[in-house]
Design a protein that fits this description.
Blueprint: H1 11-55, H2 60-66, H3 70-73, E1 77-83, E2 86-94, E3 107-115
Antiparallel strand pairs: 1-2, 2-3
Helix pairs in contact: 1-2
């Protein structure tokens, strides 16, 4: 005699296989969000370093790129502009697509400013 339970055999496996693509898509989207956040963090740190270097007369571009990894360094743009007693640095980095070094979804800007100390030094 067969019971109702015998009719459900394998149902969990079928449901799991149907959910696998959705689970993988969710994980990929979460990973992409992590990469966006990390890129913003790197851009902000690089801008801080560039602004500090520019404030004392060092090479702003080299200081901004010094702390970037190879994957983010390739498309990095560093600009420094003095004015109003401040040195303002803007670092633009490309957000990678799922893996660092693969393409660029869009650019993110990190901005920082520091007091221009070149005129304050004796």
């Amino acid at each position: 005699m067969r019971t109702h339970r015998d009719d459900d055999r394998g149902q969990v496996a079928v449901e799991f296989l149907g959910m696998v693509p959705l689970i993988l898509l969710t994980l990929a989207l979460l990973w992409q969000v992590v990469l966006v956040g990390y890129t913003y963090t790197l851009a902000g740190n690089a801008a801080d370093e560039a602004a500090r270097a520019g404030a004392v007369g060092d090479d702003c571009d080299e200081a901004g790129k010094r702390h970037l990894d190879g994957a983010w360094l390739d498309g990095a743009r560093v600009t420094c502009s003095p004015g109003g007693g401040l040195v303002t640095a803007v670092v633009t980095l490309q957000v990678p697509v799922l893996f660092p070094g693969v393409g660029g979804l869009f650019g993110v800007d990190g901005k920082a400013a520091a007091v221009d100390e070149k005129g304050l030094m004796p």
